[in-house]
Task: structure prediction
Amino acid sequence: QVQLVESGGGLVQAGGSLRLSCAASGRTFSRYAMGWFRQAPGKERERVAGFSMNGGSTFYADSVKGRFTISRDNALNTVYLQMNSLKPEDTAVYYCAARGVPVGPYDYWGQGTQVTVSS
Result:
């Protein structure tokens, strides 16, 4: 069982930056594939960034490439999402997720943190 707790959301002006954190419980954190998702009102949830199992590769949605960076600190059991050059369309609830298998749905989800970007 993995428990995930996000933090770092807030209100920021367009062009600004935020760093989201996802603290995870569990002794095998480094083996999990991790992802950041977001869901805006009236829209489907989308994956914006992720690590494969063991951190061998990363994924970024086209909409955030060059602006967002995912990183992890296995010693702290924490995954980060650095978000730069934020746009109003980045406004959403951001969720951290984990899965213990290479492919398939994510098994564990955090409660989400709100990010609001004003124009």
In short: The mean pLDDT is 93.
